[in-house]
Amino acid sequence: MNSQLAKDSKVLIVDDQVLAKGYMKYSLEELGFSNITYVDKISLALTTIRSQRYDLIICSYNLKREQDGYYFYDEIRTNGELPSSTAFVFISADTNSDLVQSIIELQPDDFLAKPFTVKELDRRLSRVLARKKALHEVYVCIEKSQYPRALSEVELFLANPKNSEFFPLALKIKGEMLCACGHFPQAKDFYLAILKVQTFSWAQLGLVNTYLRLDEDESAEKLVLRLAFKSDSQLAAYDLLTALQIKQNDFETALECVLMATEISPRNIRRHKTALDLSRITHDYETQFDAAKKIVRFAKNSIHDKPENYLNVARAGIDYAMTADEEDTDKLIKQANEYVRQLKVAFPKAELQEQLKVINIRLHYLENEKEKARALIEQLDEENWENEGVDALLDKAKAFHELGLHERSQAVLEQIEFRCKNQSDQGEIFLQYIQQEIKEKSSIKYSSRELNNNAVNFYRRGDIENAMESFTQAFTIMPKNASIALNLLQLIAAKSHNIGATKSANQLVKKCIKTVENSVLNEDQQERYHKVRSVLDGVG
């Protein structure tokens, strides 16, 4: 260890194990560090870094009090409280697959597995601090969001042969700064030139990003699919693949990609939120409910923990119950109520009367207590929409629609659309979902539950035309429901002389078949489907 570098470095240690802290103190002092601060809680660490600047933060990944190291790192990085010039090193006695994936994803400056020797600590910290010192001017520009200047600084750095030890990192930063400056054609040429010399994963991922920015989607897809099979680039590849599918409006495939990523790294809240948005736009109510529950689970004791998470689980549970079989409805209602109870315990002082009132309206509707729902809905505040979040307004629009108050429902949805177009905090997927809701709810006047019941009644009375219309509308908003898909296929088969008349009719048949074949059918449904396919295959 360079003695002057150690002496000049201000260090923060975050660890709640007394013995570990003692060993770390001994080791760092052996290496020449003297300006060392120790804290054993994340709350203390946050207070400390908000009042002082550190050159090095060494944090235990497995803290047992309050937040753990993962959420601490996530919080200070999200809030811009971790300067680029500050080195961050995780330490842990655990090396399970979840931790390894988290480290790959978070990309701290280094990770040390316990137990480690003073010699190993010396080697790792010397390397990390030397990098930070060498590229200090570049990092300072990045911290100030002065990306053109950072690009100039890193090019000057690369022009000096004395810095060759740090060229791989400097090259990576150069690619990032080219993209940050919006120089995507130059970034593309830069990454291609790098890859001719060595196939760095970061350069391949950077190239995919530039392909996407330059609308070279086919090239992006070919490369990113290869990267999805490499452990060091898998998560980033799934993120880019998700972005590509969203760009192409293939929301079903995008949802599959983001769900695969959440399986690999389940603690990433951002991906669960993307899954939530994608499941909404694809009418996948079960996945929406599951994503909302995971957000609550993984957000606890983190920067992401907030009342809205619990409310969204209750709302998603109600959405799912609206489309589920009757035997599952009671279970889903109980789960929605349980999350409302957890919300009141976790955030007892939160002012949520209006949102909870809307949830109760929808629960009354689900339980066929429509008079109670109608009496409660007249008590809602329709004057102060600007004080409500978009998720709260969306739930209100659904409540109005379910009770037949279609004009009021449309007014709320249009208010959400206006807000999404004029506020940057709502993503493009959510805006497209709201526009889809406006279109569907203006043409489909019944709730999902009513549509299915109406269709069955029409069919039993022999009113095939109205049954067909109702089942088609029901399938539009419940495309994962195998029973509806099977009933619709039976009606199509009964009108087999019209099959293939239009492209939309063929697409509808394919969607129904996909839903049925991806579902678990009982014996009666299997027999019905076999007969229907025989008719459809004969016509085809």
From TrEMBL:
InterPro entries: CheY-like_superfamily, Sig_transdc_resp-reg_receiver, ST_Response_Regulator, TPR-like_helical_dom_sf, TPR_rpt. PROSITE patterns: RESPONSE_REGULATORY (PS50110), TPR (PS50005). Residues 349-386 form a coiled coil. TPR repeats lie at residues 448-481. Residues 10-129 form the Response regulatory domain. GO terms for biological process: phosphorelay signal transduction system. It comes from Paraglaciecola hydrolytica. SMART domains: REC, TPR. Keywords: Coiled coil, TPR repeat. This is Response regulatory domain-containing protein.
